[in-house]
């Protein structure tokens, strides 16, 4: 049963290869650069094969599945540990029952297709690929592997925290160069003591050992010296990491090295140039190594040294940055060494607000400004982050502010999903805008970043609404529409000279087909009343009961109008139109009042027609649902200019007495 479940999980993990490639920024629908580190062609020669969940290069014929690529990216040589790492990334902790199954995989004889395209043999590169049809690089195969030791290591790892594994992310800022495909180096290779220019003696290096003594690890090999020729030295940051060092790497204590680098930090201005405060530099033990051995050229044997900024992840791991700002993609600038957790995860031990960033410098930037922050250390470390959060017993609100690129956006989406499932409060932010990341914002515009953080609660309190459901608004498109005024609960406007507007309104009132509440001052109402009843002899007010006057004082016109409308609706009169005469008000007063009414007219529930001066037409039209611009002809008829529901200009004539 365990074997069947194991095979089921294995097939599932193999099927996750497209997701793994996408997380590395690779488009699986087209060719991409070969992932074989010995293929120096630098052409898009590799493609994804969905039929067997592998990638294959037509140039060097290398074929990889997801376990092989995890081996490359995480410096893991045997299949068992590759499987464990893949299981951690996509499923979770490996069940204890899989230990025997994994041990049996080590006992099985592997196929004889173990030669890569280029092979180190007798300290020379042989072009062995000429006679091979297809090259499979079997990371799970090692004829010298001690199964008893593997079982012991695996049992130990299953009883320890999941972060026991080396978690160098394949999605970090600069892609790490993987170890040699065979997991070893020429037997006569000489290594240089860190901080020592002596090349005379053969030495064992951290993460790499002599072929004649592959499975032996002494305590002396875990010591680190500065300019001490008596100690056995290790090549920190060397990308040639042996598979045999993997299980024991957790035993390395970098305390002395970190402390020595921290004592040398005054020799560089790198951290201060990036905006970090002295207190943060001291608190996080940031350091400097002016003679960091970065790599060895596989062909020439020439060694490369950096003036390196050192960022500790604790005592068991650190990351290295080349402070040479002229370094480019062909000259690596970023490495990791040892075992890694989420950077500054200790911040989770206190309750409150926590910022989640992508890079270490982003977290350090926020710490410089007095905020607590943790960093993924790479967009691929989302699962580690969630495990840290789940392990915390404190209450937190999380602000997620990763880099605004494809990898950052994908990681943000994953974090949001997990936090939502855990029921934890979070918000997504782009704190760095318009800069690339938070650290760039710090050293480019510190005041802007400080102000943004200080006002973050206010910034996030702005309320935004989604698009409203459609409403069937009624347009005024003909003289008959003016007579009945059967309108929607919206803000309409009539614009003309004041005297033209009075005559126009009086003609609408005379039709006696609509109920109107006219709101204005008493003088305006008197003029309109004269125009309405000028030919009525004798005058009979009972004939004009459909029209009411609401006198407006100078104070708070909006409230007076709303209270008057509410008075009518409470008395049962809901079928009327309110006309607000603003011809006697300044443009500033008119626009201020209309701005308030335009947002409240829907809740009022009554159509409102605003009468305004011709000079205010363009401004008023911007706040009203429909505006009608009115002119008068020599015979007294009115020309009405507006637009229809399609936005097409429309003109019609309102005749006197009709």
Structure in words:
The protein has 658 residues and is an alpha/beta fold. The chain is 31% helix and 17% strand. The strands form five sheets. It has an eight-stranded mixed beta sheet with strand order 17-16-18-19-15-20-21-22, with helices on both faces. Strand 8 (303-312) and strand 9 form a beta hairpin. Helix 11 (382-391) packs parallel to helix 12 (406-422) and helix 17 packs across helix 18 (522-533). The longest helix is centred in the C-terminal third of the chain and has 18 residues, at 587-604. The radius of gyration is 38 Å and the shape is elongated. The relative contact order is 0.06.
Question: In a few lines, what is going on in this structure?
Answer:
This protein is of the alpha/beta class and 658 residues long. Residues 109-152 and 157-251 have low confidence and may be disordered.
Q: Which descriptors apply to this entry?
A:
single chain; 658 residues; alpha/beta; 8-stranded mixed β-sheet; 4-stranded mixed β-sheet; 21 helices; elongated
Secondary-structure blueprint of this entry?
Blueprint: H1 2-14, H2 17-23, E1 46-49, E2 54-57, E3 62-64, H3 66-74, H4 79-90, H5 98-107, E4 119-121, E5 124-126, E6 135-136, H6 147-158, H7 255-263, H8 270-273, H9 278-283, E7 287-296, E8 303-312, E9 317-322, E10 334-338, E11 352-357, H10 360-368, E12 373-375, H11 382-391, E13 396-400, H12 406-422, E14 426-428, H13 438-444, H14 446-454, H15 456-460, H16 479-484, E15 491-496, H17 498-510, E16 516-520, H18 522-533, E17 547-551, H19 557-570, E18 577-581, H20 587-604, E19 608-613, H21 617-621, E20 626-632, E21 638-643, E22 649-654
Helix pairs in contact: 3-4, 5-6, 10-13, 11-12, 13-14, 17-18, 19-20
């Amino acid at each position: 049963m365990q074997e069947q479940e194991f095979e089921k999980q294995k097939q599932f993990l193999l099927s996750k290869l497209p997701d793994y490639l996408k997380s590395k920024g690779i488009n699986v629908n087209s060719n991409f650069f070969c992932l074989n580190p010995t293929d120096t062609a630098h052409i898009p020669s590799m493609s994804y094969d969905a039929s067997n969940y592998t990638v294959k290069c037509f140039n060097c014929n290398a074929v990889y599945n997801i376990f092989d690529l995890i081996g490359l990216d995480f410096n893991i040589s045997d299949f068992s540990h590759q499987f464990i790492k893949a299981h951690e990334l996509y499923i979770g902790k490996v069940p204890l029952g899989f230990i025997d199954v994994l041990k049996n995989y080590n006992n099985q004889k592997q196929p004889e297709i173990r030669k890569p395209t280029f092979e180190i043999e007798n300290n020379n590169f042989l072009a062995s690929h000429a006679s091979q049809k297809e090259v499979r690089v079997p990371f799970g195969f090692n004829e010298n592997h001690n199964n008893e030791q593997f079982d012991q290591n695996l049992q130990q790892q299953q009883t320890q925290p999941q972060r026991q594994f080396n978690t160098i992310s394949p999605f970090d800022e600069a892609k790490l160069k993987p170890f040699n495909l065979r997991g070893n180096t020429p037997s006569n290779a000489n290594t240089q003591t860190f901080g020592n220019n002596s090349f005379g003696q053969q030495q064992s290096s951290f993460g790499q050992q002599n072929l004649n003594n592959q499975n032996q690890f002494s305590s002396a090999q875990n010591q680190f010296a500065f300019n001490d020729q008596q100690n056995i030295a290790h090549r920190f940051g060397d990308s040639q990491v042996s598979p045999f060092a993997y299980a024991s790497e957790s035993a390395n204590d970098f305390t002395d090295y970190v402390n020595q680098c921290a004592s040398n930090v005054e020799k560089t201005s790198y951290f201060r140039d990036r905006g970090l405060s002295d207190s943060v530099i001291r608190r996080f033990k940031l350091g400097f190594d002016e003679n960091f051995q970065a790599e060895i050229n596989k062909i020439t044997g020439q060694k490369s040294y950096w003036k390196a900024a050192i960022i500790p992840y604790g005592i068991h791991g650190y990351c290295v940055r080349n402070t040479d700002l002229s370094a480019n993609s062909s000259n690596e600038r970023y490495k990791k060494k040892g075992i890694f957790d989420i950077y500054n995860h200790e911040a989770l031990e206190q309750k409150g607000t926590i910022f989640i960033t992508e890079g270490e410098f982003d977290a350090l930037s926020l710490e410089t400004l007095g905020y607590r922050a943790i960093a993924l250390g790479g967009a691929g470390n989302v699962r580690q982050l969630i495990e840290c959060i789940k392990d915390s017993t404190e209450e937190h609100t999380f602000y997620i502010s990763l880099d605004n690129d494809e990898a950052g956006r994908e990681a943000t989406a994953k974090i949001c999903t997990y936090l939502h499932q855990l029921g934890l409060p979070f918000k997504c932010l782009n704190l760095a805008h318009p800069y690339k990341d938070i650290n760039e914002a710090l050293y480019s515009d510190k005041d802007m970043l400080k102000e943004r953080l200080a006002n973050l609660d206010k910034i996030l309190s702005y309320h935004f609404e989604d698009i409203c459901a459609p409403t069937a608004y009624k347009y005024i498109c003909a003289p008959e529409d003016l007579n009945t005024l059967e309108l929607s609960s919206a803000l309409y406007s009539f614009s003309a000279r004041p005297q033209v507007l009075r005559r126009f309104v009086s003609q609408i009132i005379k039709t006696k087909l609509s109920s109107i509440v006219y709101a204005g001052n008493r003088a305006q109402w008197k003029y309109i009343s004269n125009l309405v009843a000028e030919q009525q002899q004798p005058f009979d007010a009972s004939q004009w009961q459909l029209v009411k006057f609401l006198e407006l004082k100078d104070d708070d016109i909006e409230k007076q109008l709303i209270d008057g409308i509410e008075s009518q609706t409470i008395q049962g009169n809901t079928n009327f139109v309110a006309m607000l005469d603003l011809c006697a008000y300044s443009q500033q007063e008119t626009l201020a009042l209309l701005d308030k009414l335009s947002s409240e007219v829907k809740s009022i529930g009554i159509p409102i027609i605003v009468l305004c001066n011709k000079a205010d037409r363009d401004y008023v039209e911007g706040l009203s649902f429909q505006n009608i611009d009115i002119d008068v002809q020599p015979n007294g008829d009115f020309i009405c200019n507006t637009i229809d529901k399609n936005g097409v200009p429309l003109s019609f004539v309102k005749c006197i007495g009709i």
